[in-house]
Design brief:
The chain is an alpha/beta fold. The protein has a single domain, classed as Rossmann fold (3-Layer(aba) Sandwich), CATH 3.40.50.620. Strands 9-8-7-10-6-1-4-5-11 form a 9-stranded mixed beta sheet, with helices on both faces. Bound molecules: adenosine monophosphate (AMP). InterPro entries: ET-Flavoprotein_bsu_CS (IPR000049), ETF_a/b_N (IPR014730), ETF_b (IPR012255), ETF_beta_N (IPR033948), Rossmann-like_a/b/a_fold (IPR014729).
Length: 253
């Protein structure tokens, strides 16, 4: 049976209107609601489903981030993960943490924990990098199944249906492997109150990148963060003639 490592990132909640800091070096995070990255909920759900089908023996939820990242680990534990690993970095370091750093951390943990499967989200909705799963597979030299729409365990390994431009692609891979969860892979369950209570008692190990021998010095410098251009307000026109006149006036036709 597989031991599964799941990556859960704490990000600004998807429903929050993100604001750029006046210094244009990042976005406002203080006093802003944070949650588990939505694609990571799907990754956790897939791991829990494997365990329910007796195809996984243990689920380890990992989050790299500041102290508050423990909240998303607890959510993963309430959804059905067995134990958590919090790789702690300061809030300042977290802002500069890049997918390559996280990939090296996850890869080292996957080896230390003897994982057979690493399941991540397809992308984190804060930096939209879509790099961590691919780079984790590269660091480990394991096969990867990205943008998973369906995952089936077979005797030889896994059959994976992937979401690609214009359709679905089916691939077969051996284990160990790294997967990334796309939106339609499953519908994540809600953590129930009794499970939230139980999750408080599940083990949560704390470590640092240094414990894992990973150097988190930034390799990329953020030059500027800016709001998207403000869209001009639209106007309602009475009929097609007025529309055509307006378009001509604006030099569009
Ligand atoms: P990204 O490559 O940044 O878009 O992230 C893709 C996926 O990698 C996320 O959905 C998570 O599953 C995982 N991941 C990224 N950053 C972290 C982190 N700090 N802690 C745990 N998992 C992470």
């Amino acid at each position: 049976m597989a031991r599964v490592l799941v990556g859960v990132k704490r990000v600004i909640d998807y429903a929050v209107k993100v604001r750029v800091k006046p210094e244009k070096n990042g976005v406002v995070t203080q006093g802003v609601k944070h949650s588990m990255n939505p694609f990571d909920e799907i990754a956790v759900e897939e791991a829990v489903k494997l365990k329910e089908k007796k195809l996984a023996s243990e689920i380890i939820a990992v989050s790299v981030g500041p102290t508050q990242s423990q909240e998303v680990i607890r959510t993963a534990l309430a959804m059905g993960a067995d134990r958590g690993v919090h790789v702690e970095v300061s809030a300042a370091e977290y802002e500069l943490l890049q997918p390559l750093h996280v990939s090296k951390i996850l890869a080292k943990l996957a080896l230390d924990e003897k994982a057979d499967l690493v399941i991540l989200g397809k992308q984190a909705i804060d930096d939209d990098a879509n790099q961590t799963a691919q780079m984790t597979a590269a660091v480990l030299d394991w096969p990867q199944g990205t943008f998973c729409n369906k995952v089936e365990k077979t005797d030889a390994g896994l059959t994976i249906v992937r979401e690609i431009d214009g359709g679905l692609e089916t691939i077969k891979t051996k284990m160990p492997a790294v997967l990334s969860a796309d939106l339609r892979l499953n519908t994540p369950r809600y953590a129930t109150l009794p499970n939230i209570m139980k999750a408080k008692k599940k083990p949560l190990k704390k470590m640092t990148p240094k414990d894992l021998g990973v150097d988190t010095t930034p390799r990329i410098e953020v030059v500027s963060v800016e709001d998207p251009p403000v869209r001009q307000a639209g106007a309602t026109v009475a009929d097609v003639d007025a529309l055509v006149a307006k378009l001509k006036e604006g030099g569009h036709i």
